[in-house]
Records
---
Amino acid sequence: MVDWLAGKRMKGTSSERTSLSTTALGGTGVGGWVEVGRTTLGSNSNPITVSSLPDKRYYMILWHTTHSSGNWNQPRFRMGNGSVDSGANYAEKRSWDGGTDGANAPNTFVPMWCNASTPNTPLFGVGYIANYSSKEKLTLGHSVDRYTAGAGTAPRRAEWVGKWTNTSNPLDLLELNEASTNNFTSGDEMVVLGYDPADTHTNNFWEELYSGSGASGMDTGASAFTAKKYLWIQMYLNDMISGANVNMVLNGVESSNYALRYNQNGGADGTITSRSDNLIHLGASNETEAFINMFIINDGSNEKLGIVHNMTQQTAGATTAPARSELVFKDSQTTQITDVEVRRTSGSWGANSQLKIWGAD
């Protein structure tokens, strides 16, 4: 007999669960985000379309674009089933650089740019879609725009939500369409990941590159992990000290090569340029524990762009709200990241602090 935990009972027997497959119990199947579509441009052109997508309940989208000429890099997002829906069947709300929300309803697209007006400006974005055939398709995301090259100018950011009002079909294609007359640039791409609770595949898109804990685990060491184009980094930080910032150094480089834009608790955006380390968490009062989530585009030919969200617990208990901040950053070095070090301005990390890094090409 095999003991197992079941519902409100302490134990059951293997004969009582013969109708449940090994996969359903987490045996051979794994699940998770899997790549379901990708389009990488081989020449300067517009739009970027990923089609023939399987019906998944949720999608994660990664994209990075520039443009071949002119003064704009304004990718806009459309969905479709069989063909792109370019009608006024969308509604959206967005904020640029932490400013007042703007909205268009109805609209013919969902904007995903950062109000870019600088020629040939790289842009990186991460978005999500809830895809249910009989419901409007809901999407949200964040993007970062390098703006002027170099750490002397802060990047720009955008956050947006949108919906596609189709309630008859699941989507099966996504389109990035440049709003101006410019083309995207060769090498620009959109990657679409799918997730469904019933998935049991083992070919996950995200590969774990590093896992560390405690004071020593918050520094991967030089060339500790394989370089990947996309990085997803998460941190749980305990034993925080009130008012202490958290900084990150990439590839051990500390030469005024970082610039960032940040927003704390919904206030006005601030900017910091030419830092020798990358600020990823602004210290708040009464800090205890913190959680940080970030994505980085880590190619070997451009400055690195990152999107960061974090929160701190503040005083324990439901009578005190947590604190939050949103940041985007750029690192002017073009060497791919294979080394991450997380520091704080005073004290040392508690034994339960965790650093996790996933990557994919």
---
Amino acid sequence: MTYEEWERSVPSVIREDSLWRVECYRLALFLADLAWKDVSTLARDRRTWRVADQLFRSAGNISSSIGEGYSRGTGKDRAKFYEYSLGSARESRDWYYKGRHVLEPSVVAHRLELCTCIIRLTITMIASERRTNRRIQPDR
């Protein structure tokens, strides 16, 4: 599935939220959906059960932490949750690398690249929030 195909499949209730404007969130949500399938592949091999479990948790946590941080009232609070997201993105990249013996090489390469893109975007978001520390009212 391409990103464009996936994006069209996301329910409008999610796409209409202001959080959807955050590219890093969209990519992280995409990664979580891709990881769902990858975890199924990893779980078929007894040697990678633990990798599958850890990958499922870390990949799913990236977008969740961004969403939680986005809803916080100050830059300091947002940065804290974006840091959690950063940690989960790096952890996901690590688990994808460890799963390379079971997953297709092209899948691993794509997921490592996607994780790295999310990491870069998250670092930028953290730096921005630390600089501004502005207070906002979350959208409802």
